[in-house]
Design goal:
single chain; about 220 residues; alpha/beta; Rossmann fold; 2 domains; 8-stranded mixed beta sheet; two-stranded antiparallel ribbon; 10 strands; about 25% strand; globular
Length: about 220
């Protein structure tokens, strides 16, 4: 065994891991400072820290009118109480009054309307890179072609380094995102006034859990 590796201290090992895989190293206070909440006890309670930990790429998917956008706005609402948030409106369906009604702080919301899919992902990157937003929702509901993994890898790295949250809205049954790049996939459906949220894929909570949220 290499003596340099064998003699490394715990502190040095922690620093090395943090530089290589920053999302994998817990820091004191992370559970309080870097958690994003939906404001739904039944959903937030699925996660160890009472919300989605920072540095994650989350996909919220479902059919038309199921409530996936309103679920994403809940995350932005809680995040906007602490700082600026972003909404990348690739589908052109963003409705400011709905965001405000969901609790999003209007004065802390940056809305971007990109001309292309590449511009949409790059816009999210820049918001994180310049620390202009703590959480970003990217609306890809109109897209049907799988996204380039190279772009997603880069976006994921920026999300992790900024200790932020990236939420990608997609419309099922289209699978735009490689499963390996998504930490959490929430599948949303609505039936008879009840929104059903299924944890379809997750590295941060138990998979297969179903949460029901009655319409307000």
């Amino acid at each position: 065994m290499d003596n340099n590796i064998r003699n490394i201290t715990f502190h040095q090992l922690r620093q090395l891991l943090a530089r290589t895989w920053p999302e994998a190293v817990w820091q004191p206070g992370d559970s309080e400072r870097f958690v994003f909440r939906f404001g739904l006890n039944s959903l937030d309670g699925l996660f160890a820290g009472g919300g989605v930990p920072a540095g994650q790429m989350v996909e919220i998917t479902g059919g038309s009118g199921c409530g996936k956008t309103s679920l994403a706005l809940r995350l932005l609402a809680s995040a906007s109480q602490a700082g600026t948030v972003g909404y990348v409106d690739r589908s052109g369906s963003f409705f400011a009054p709905a965001a405000v009604a969901s609790g999003v702080h209007a004065g802390r919301l940056v809305v971007v309307r990109p001309g292309s899919l590449t511009d949409a992902l790059r816009s999210a990157e820049l918001l994180f890179e310049h620390q202009a937003a703590g959480a970003v929702v990217c609306d890809l509901i109109g897209e049907t072609i799988p996204l380039a993994e190279t772009l997603l890898h880069r976006l994921r790295r920026k999300t992790v380094r900024a200790r932020s949250l990236m939420v990608l809205l997609t419309r099922s049954p289209h699978r735009l995102l490689p499963p390996s790049l998504v930490s959490l996939r929430l599948e949303v459906a609505r039936n008879r006034g009840v929104m059903t949220i299924t944890v379809g894929k997750s590295r941060i909570c138990r998979e297969g859990v179903v949460v029901e949220v009655p319409d307000a």
